[in-house]
Write a structure and sequence with these properties.
transport, ATP-binding, single chain, Alpha-Beta Plaits, translocase, 14 strands, binds adenosine-5'-triphosphate, disordered N terminus
């Protein structure tokens, strides 16, 4: 048994596989949205599917939940094949969909009671409302809820059957920072209670904060799968130096010369250009920074907006795919 559990105090039991995605493939017409996805999710972990829009996260999740039929491969949840034993799978999962259309005219409490009536062994509603910080809103109509409150209600509804495994599809997209953090707390509390959570997101910070392991997806494929710390460690550089260049020669030739110069800076392991921002990766921030500034002082380049930061999952994604997680 390995405890990855740095996020909250839930125990991750890596000897117990709760979900297995085995060669999942899905096309829409001639477009292959998911191209052979494999991974295992362990008991008690928060497992993140992180990737830009269109990476195939939702399609992958919905094949595991049994909402979409794979063209190839299979998904096993709690020992059941979602294609062959969907009823069994439904008993152990809770699903918060990306866009839940809730009954706008019902109150929070009414909709909870209605959904609870679908399950033979639904959990009591009051503690659930409390957990979702919706007690004060129980008499309020759904249409008057904020985006964050609606998302919390959607998660509450997904928890009514006391599921072992919870699927959250981009639960914080479009929420303000405070509403996002409230949801993060809820997710970490669910983990503490031993739930296994599969979460899709295109926010790298969210994945970093919440997930024990992250499956980086791009264009329907898994590009990397590891703990956030190990993913960043793969870059072999823990710091990044970012800057713009003023009056730089923007021709192809000028850029190539500049890249060569930047690569030759002491201790620099990698160089990237994002629009007009140059990024240098280094394990020795001080040495690289001094060398960069000395070259600038000697007149070989004019630096602007210089800043340093630690390397992130965004850097990992770019180094692996050449693209950004963020929408341009
Ligand atoms: P997002 O964050 O935008 O939801 P995602 O990573 O969840 O992205 P998917 O929703 O799985 O990605 O979509 C993967 C690709 O499949 C996208 O290019 C999308 O346009 C396409 N797609 C998804 N659903 C359908 C559908 N029902 N019909 C046709 N194409 C679809």
């Amino acid at each position: 048994m390995i405890n990855f559990g740095s996020k909250g105090c839930g125990i991750v039991d890596s000897s117990q596989v709760v979900i297995e995605a085995d060669g999942l493939v899905k096309s829409y017409g001639s477009f292959q949205a998911v191209r052979g996805v494999n991974f295992k999710v362990f008991q008690g972990e928060v497992f993140g599917l992180l990737g830009p829009n269109g990476a195939g996260k939702t399609t992958t999740m919905e094949m595991i939940e049994g909402l979409r039929k794979p063209d190839g491969g299979r998904a096993i949840v709690a020992g059941y094949d979602t294609q062959k034993a969907l009823i069994k799978v439904k008993e152990v999962i809770g699903v918060q969909l990306q866009s839940t259309s809730l009954f706008e005219l019902l109150t929070v409490e009414e909709i909870m009671r209605m959904y609870a009536s679908f399950y033979p062994n639904a959990v009591p509603i009051e503690p659930l409302l409390e957990d979702m910080t919706l007690t004060e809103k129980r008499k309020g109509r759904v249409k008057h809820l904020s985006g964050g409150q609606k998302q919390r209600l959607a998660i509450g509804l997904a928890l009514l059957n006391d599921p072992k495994v919870i699927f959250l599809d981009e639960p914080t997209t479009g929420l303000d920072p405070q509403a996002r953090r409230t949801l993060w707390d809820i997710i970490l509390r669910l983990k503490e209670r031993g739930k296994t959570i599969v979460l899709s997101t295109h926010y790298m910070e969210e994945a970093h904060v919440l997930c024990d392991r992250i499956c980086l997806m791009d264009q329907g494929k898994v590009v990397a799968l590891d703990t956030p710390r190990e993913l960043v460690r793969r870059l072999q550089s823990d710091s990044a130096i970012e800057f713009r260049l003023q009056g730089a020669d923007e021709s192809e030739e000028g850029r190539t010369r500049m890249l060569e110069e930047l690569h030759s800076i002491r201790e620099v392991k990698g160089v990237d250009i994002r629009k007009d921002v140059y990024v240098l990766y280094t394990d020795n921030l001080q040495t690289s920074l001094i060398d960069l500034i000395e070259r600038s002082a000697a007149g070989s380049m004019e630096l602007a907006d210089l800043q340093t930061r630690t390397a992130t999952l965004e850097d990992v994604f770019i180094s692996m795919t050449g693209r950004s997680l963020k929408e341009e």
